[in-house]
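Deliverable D4.2, example record:
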Amino acid sequence: MTKFVQTLATRISEYVLELGLPYAGIDEISWLLERWPIYSKPSRTIDVGDVTEASSHFENLAKGRRKLYWFALNNIIQYLGDTCQWQIPKKNENKLIDHELKWMEAIVLEANHVY
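Output generated by the structure prediction step:
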């Protein structure tokens, strides 16, 4: 392991632990950084193809190990996006709808018309 990868993995680990995010471990982050040298890209962008390339390194591993490497991948992307201001892919999150809040907003809107 190169000194640069070790230092980067340590910084990512400290950052993720500070935020309280799901943490893979420094060994998993180092392992992934050695096989996926994203830091050597000329542009500061990560696209879906880069994520697919990174996940190809651990897709044939056992399910438990694969989950750790997914955490490591997310830890690396989070660090590069937040700390290094890289452009990272947007997550497809299901939007949760609070129906009770919508109901209250409708009541408040009607209550404004009363006065």
